[in-house]
Specification:
Blueprint (H helix, E strand, L loop, with lengths): L1 H23 L16 H30 L8 H25 L6 H16 L11 H7 L4 H14 L7 H28 L6
Helix pairs in contact: 1-2, 1-3, 1-4, 1-6, 2-3, 2-7, 3-6, 3-7, 6-7
Length: 202
Amino acid sequence: ALSILVVHQTLFLGICLLCGDARENKRSLLVIPARLRTRCTHRVTIGRALCYLLIYTPICILTLWFIPRIFQLPQLGNLYSILIFLLPFILAVIFFGITVGNIFVRYKVSPLLCFAFFSLILFFASGMVWPQSNMPGFWYGFSQIFPSTPGVQGFVKVSSMGASLADVRSEYLTLWIQAGIYFITACFSLRFIKRYKIFNAI
């Protein structure tokens, strides 16, 4: 549970830091010709996501597969199932980070101030410390906003319990739905800040 949460938080923090750094230095978040900027936000979002995905996939394999085996930690899942499950998880985190970074992050230090605070909240909301069935309705709904919640639940089942993808179908579909929703919000947020020049991100 902690390993998948670390992956979530470091990837999310890195994306938000890049957004904040771009705004502080007044660099454009769209690396395409100006005449196409308002019409190509989805292409830019996909391009950025692929870059983050290529960087973080080896990190995830090292952190979630090789390190547990090096230290001989119990791991019942196979690498194929873990990678297939992690694909929508990483994409959901990427698009979620781009959305938050585009809308809320104005300075590079802003994500660092919230990192430790939200990490503890996400850990408790994941259901590993306190069962989700006993959570109040508000906190259960709040936990479903973050990709870490279905990511932690599904990864623990796949890795530690040897579950197949069919056994974690609910968490797997939730991650794909989150990835789709956050992709749309990432595109619209990027188009919005470029059109209205929010935070001087021009």
